[in-house]
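Per reviewer request, we include the raw input and output of the structure prediction for the construct analysed in the revised manuscript.
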Amino acid sequence: MSTVNIPRIVVAAPASGTGKTTVATGLMAALSARGLAVSPHKVGPDYIDPGYHSLAAGRPGRNLDAWMCGPQRIAPLFLHGAAGADVAVVEGVMGLFDGASGQGELASTAHVAKLLKAPVVLVVDASSQSRSVAALVHGFASWDPEVRLAGVILNRVASDRHELLLREALEEGSGVPVLGSVRRSAAVATPSRHLGLIPAVERSAEAVRAVRDMGGLIAASVDLDAVLALARTAPALPDAAWDPAAEVTPVAGRRPRIALAAGAAFSFSYAENAELLAAAGAEVLPFDPLHATELPAGTAGLVIGGGFPEMYVAELSANTALREAIRALAAGGAPVAAECAGLLYLGQELDGRPMCGVLDTDARMTERLTLGYREAVALHDSPLAPAGTRVRGHEFHRTVCEPGAGKEPAWGWRTPAGPRTEGFAAGNVHASYLHLHWAGAPQLAEHFVAAAAGGVS
């Protein structure tokens, strides 16, 4: 097997909240500004960071989740996403060694770095410390000898004097080179929302300015030549790039047209899902439910992913024509698959405002965050999966649906409190809070396209 060599680094941190998103996004923007083709990646299931990455790099931000997709697919998915790039920047998740709960290193940033054979750059929040930073970096560098912690970027540094103390301590106590020192800068902070950062797609011009400012800050604070030199030390990967066409069998005959909800209210989607739909024989047609008054002509199936419909509930509710079109499509028997935000949109009401009325459930916002990985089994046949199909996905929401499951629930999984059923698998409709990365279960795309083509009842 031939090897592929793409220069790459993993940007990690000791914990969340250190500024690694600002540093990683800034690196992508700064390297892109040099004329390099930068491939952006994010460890874990998060949808929001890749939106900023896409703005910074000018190409889709892609997720690398070893729990949902399997460790064996991480390098192939990376190579698929990074094809043609001069350098790849991979932003980590949480702390460097924090993996899926109860699974050791599985799906951690360290795990993905090892699978990619990539050097790690540690972003350290240096505020309120000096010499202690060396002990912290030494500990992270020595914890797992298979993880190559090859550089440090100091963040939230107070002054030149503070930087000097930090550099001296690290030179003496860790041996890990300092690649940059970033001063405190509230001007480029990315604002938070109830699920984390605000999606870039919602902020348009403001998001572009924020990414530009991140790039300028990092270009002025980090030795980009040293970062590139470090990225080029990554060895060639022996894996073949992931190929959606090799994962599914396309339907015979005419390509069914599948409408894919997009735009500000439904921006949570993994690029590979649409690629698998296309490879399975579909013509994928994105549309924006905030603005479209009808579904794309000839729609034979509908996929509605996640996002923040609760932030646009008035606009979505006011778009009566599209709501009626979606209800008619579902009533006519076309397959419909919805995740999280899509589930809310298909219900009767969201926070008291009318939605599509496809499902007999009402949704409302709460203060409680539901999140975590789920290993689920399909309890009933649906256009997305036959009964018995096992998948791995994740939940991340602050809404509740009442009821939370139909007479024919979509999924079942075990919790510490016992078995749980969730979602709706009512005939031709599959709707659930569970987010799925179809690269980990490509048969979902094949099954759905077959349903749209009339091959699945």
